Amino acid sequence: MKVIARAGREDIAMVYVAETEYGKSIEFVESIQPPLPRDKKWVLIVSTLYGCPVSCRFCDAGGYFQGKISKKDILSQIDYLIKKRYPDRKVPIKNFKIQFARVGEPSFNNAVLEVINSLSEFYDAPGLVPCISTVAPRGVDSFFEKLLEIKKRKYPSRFQLQFSIHTTDEKLRDWIIPVEKWSFSEIARYGEKFYDENGKKLTLNFGLAKGIPIDPDVLLKYFSPDTFLVKITPINPTYTAIKNQLSSEEVLKKCNDLLNSLCLRGYDNILSIGELEENKIGSNCGQYVLRHKMAKKKIESAYLYDLMEF
């Protein structure tokens, strides 16, 4: 793998574009969360597929699919970022998250499991928290079974699993995530097996947008607040979200009632807005700088940092 370009700010987030030996492009991200310094929290976000066959309605990385990224090239993304700052591969960071969520639904690639299982062989990182973000596709149950085994054996209290469901309206969920997927009941059953009382609750992620409902009573019907927490994130400015008229701008200003309603039902909740500068960098969820590079008509609210080629 050869890194060929980058964009961003060292004090917020950097996006890197690389070419594999097969001549295919991948991109990956490192970020911090101000005001926390890097030695308190550092997040690496790596790609697992060349494109993504799911094509969620707000994601710029969907719409094409050219195969799975090998274990070697997933590790190369991680290794590049770690060696850049810690050449001895010793990472003394309290909260060091490796998130398999830049490009690609991770459960479509068993190499992700191989990487997660082998991270301790390559890095001395006591604060490591692996993170899988998934839409819970149907037909890859063996991936989730193996993930459960690895988590229980190697990361009983330090693993973050996020289910991106985005709405409690089943029909709209099918439109937003146009792939066969687990029902809420199936996600809940798996979550109960995955959860460890000394570890992290599982996350139910919602990209908040106008016209996309989140009903706390529907959540409570399926998901125990003792096992699951709720994360509300904005729909970031992407070409795909604009095309599908999805925006969080209005509803984010009015989400306090939703958060209070979730609290009343016992849910821990996170309003995860993050640094707005990341939208301009193109490092946020759903963004894909190569999509911006290919676009003829540029959007004005994102991807404002030039890719600097090496």
CATH topology descriptor: TIM Barrel
Total strands: the figure is 13
Sketch the major β-sheet: 11 strands, mixed
As for the number of domains, it is: 1
How do the strands of the widest beta sheet line up side by side?
12-11-10-9-8-7-4-3-2-1-13
What is the overall shape? globular
Order of helices and strands: EEEEEEHEHEHEHHEHEHHHEHHE
Quickly give the structural class.
Answer: alpha/beta
Question: What does the radius of gyration come to?
Answer: 18 Å
Helix content: 25-40%
Please give the count of helices.
11
Give the integer mean of the pLDDT values. Answer: 95
Distance between the termini: 14 Å
- Described by its quaternary structure, the protein is single chain
CATH level 1 name: Alpha Beta
Word description of this protein:
The chain is α/β, with parallel strands linked by helices. 31% of the residues lie in helices and 23% in strands. It has an eleven-stranded mixed sheet with strand order 12-11-10-9-8-7-4-3-2-1-13. A two-stranded antiparallel sheet has the order 5-6. It has helices at residues 71-85, 111-122, 141-154, 170-176, 184-194, 216-222, 239-243, 249-252, 256-264, 277-281, 289-294; strands at residues 2-9, 13-19, 25-31, 41-45, 49-51, 65-68, 95-100, 128-134, 160-164, 202-208, 228-234, 269-271, 308-309.
